[in-house]
Amino acid sequence: MTSCRSRFWLFANLFLVAFIATSESADYRLNLNVLPSLYNLTIGIRGDADNPGAIFDGEVKITLQTKHADVYRITLHADSIEIEDCWLYNAAGDLVEHIVAARLIYEQETNKLTVPLAKALAISQNYILQFKYTGKVSTDTAGLFAVSYVEEQTGKTKWVLLTEMQNINARRVFPCFDEPAIKAKFEVHIGRPSGFNAISNTKLVATTNEGNNRFTDHFDVTPIMSSYLLAFVISEYRARGNTSEMAIYTRPEFYNHTEFSYSVAQRALPACENEFQTSYKALGNELFQYATTPRFPHNSMENWGLVIFKDKVVLEQKGYTDGWAQKEFTIRNIVHENSHMWFGNSVTFKWWSYVWMQEGFARFYEFLIGHKLYPEHQLDQQFVIRKVQHVFSTDALNITQPMTSPESSIQTPADIDYKFGRISFAKAACIIRMWRNLMGEANFDMAVRSYLKQNHLGNVEPNDLFVYLKEYWPRNHIVNLDKFFFDFTEQPGYPVIMVNISQENRLIGLYQKRFLSNPGDGSDPSLRYTIPITFATNLDPNFKNLTPHMYFDKIVDVALIRAKEPIDWIILNIQQSNYYRVFYDTPILRKIQEALSKDGHSSIAVENRAQLVNDLFNFAFVGMIDYAEVFQFLEYLSKEVEYIPWFAAYEGLQDVTRRLTPQQLNHFEKYLRDITAAVYSKLGVLWRSEDTVLDVYNRDMQVAWLCRFKNFDCNKKVTNHFEESLNANSEKPSPDYRETFYCAAARSAGYDEIVFEIYLSETNSNERDLLWRSASCTRNYRRHYQNAILNNSTTVFQKTAGLAQMYQQNPDLITDIYLMLTEEIELLAEALGSWSKTADVLSNMADYFTTREQETLFSDFINKNHKLFGDSAETLRTALRTVNNNVQWAEQRLGKLVSFLESRNGAAAVGLTLATTLLMVMSSVVSFLLKL
Question: What is the torsion angle, in degrees rounded to the nearest 10, for the CA atoms of residue 610, residue 612, residue 614 and residue 617?
Fold first, then answer.
């Protein structure tokens, strides 16, 4: 009866849905005539702990009122739930109206559920709107969904039911006003079978026995908050910590894996409280919990009082997943979600067009507070390479967007999803960092704390923040702040400053334009920005002072810096603190290279060394300079030992080396050996107890590159240490370095079989994946393909990962590996289980082709075998066009670089011969003198 009544209601509204679909644009926003103050929500799981079922029962009582006259409708949201009945009560509990399900009006596209009323609501009087309904326990990761895992000791399948309400999925769990600005309190009751326990945003206040092995858990009322922050988890989890204050919940067998993450949580919350000068409890919730899950749509979610993480974020298994990189990942995520308690939960954006106001701050503080708590990770320096330079690539394309979008442009679910990207997270964090450094730490902190205090439990838009930034901005800065804020938050992209020098090296001229990776992609190249200018010179190499020398106004064509004395070099944008690139004229760039090549790099900051490298690679990519000039500049790296500039270098080098032919890579190998001389001498291939965190990262990177490009000393020393470790049964390489070390060892004949044997005997799943990838670095590709990939890999993903490793880790063998795969293509298709997967494998491989000969081989194969692939043949044809584009790009753009590498290596050989001859002569002279 109930189900039929609900289906009739949905059928009766099909005409309305069709009408909406044909209108110019649907209205996704609620009218705000009626606002809730409390949701009393009961969710009941139908099944038991072994089979929780696919349906849940729901009942919600929404306390609401209106401030408007003549309100005959209440409109809210619902999605994928079946309403059985609906009632409206007054504040005294008297029934005002029974609204049968058939009268409800539903718009599928907008998820709007309208309750028609026979009598208008009274102004400023509380009503209770009650729904009884059923919903689906999803198989995806939205709303209320179920996740299974296998208990390690028993092999039994276990279940976790949990929620993910962001962005607009609370409406899949209960009818609600599902917009961030419509805040209310929530009182949650969870009905569950015995064997399960439940947690939610707030403290458990009581549990009632309902009989038949069923219980209901009752939770305290939440603070006023948005619907997307509601959460609950139903599981067999075990807690570490004090369940009345702070705890982390996970599978019982993972209890020992939460020790580090719990210690981070214990430090992160007080650090945030100190940073924002408000206690967490003062925000309105006494409880802070973390829970893990095997499957989740994101790494983590900031539900108020119940943060949910993917297992991989916070679980550490000693000896396997407890390396420095994992610890950093844990630290950053926990601090990020802690920051959200202030930015997002207490102070929430008014609409999804302002996502950056919480995600940008959370990303910024994960690095700032993370660095304060764990300085050994040097997150202040890492921010430049992991966020600034990372988001620059996105923000230079036509797919970018401004941090702030007009509210009218963000309406549909797809629009909302669009705002959750690098711009709202990484770029916003960069802009916030820029503001902080320009106005000074003390001023910024006062502005932020005032903003948080004033807007506690409220909703904000950017101007609400800008008011406080302007209040505390230094008065001696000559800048139009409204224009400055607009330029970087409401305009997309960023500028590049061109720098030249004249008048006997006393006058520096600055010009600006928008930097675009592809100027013809439809982006607006005319955008200009208000740019803060900081700099250091050889006369004043102060790389600590981030106070701007001036602001380059967008309406000014040329900005000038006058030096009292002639300068040798100038570096703009100290510590890459501000959001722009810098292009130096050739004379200045040469002087900078000379300065970098001196001992101590002339005190030029490590962030600026990385900036110079990253900028040059990007300028070469768009044709502003030639790659040969970049590689000439990178010769300074022969004296560079720090991780930050090397990370930037390898980020750029990977794109170039991917387009070099196997023959050209021989010259690159010599170049790489020369420029890594200092860092390789310092770090070597063997880990040491005195290594810093960045030393660990750096060695992993250096050995990966040197051994992949056939550096004899690197491969030989890795092989020797690997053999010694086997004979002595010594300690394994650290988790951070293990894959690189085993991969390098596997390239040596015979040792690949040993790595594969280690893989076969390993039982830890994470370690097996690592060893599989490492064993697939072998140069004995035919044996590995036949014995391992075709016969010993268990999943298609594992097979494809192994295939990719073979040619990515041995770029000189790609043609031979391709011929092996295609000589019996049916064999590969059978192993992968489909021709579409086979097409994907070949397409991915073709992206690494670098010669016309490879292109011809691929073209001939497609012409001969396209019928086997059916519709997937188009995947191969698309890949073939990509090969042509890649080879053509290399022919047009890398010619001078290839000539440079060839001539350089020839000159180096001559230089080596001359040096050797000179040494022999000197030795003879010394011997002669000693005989006198």
Answer: -150
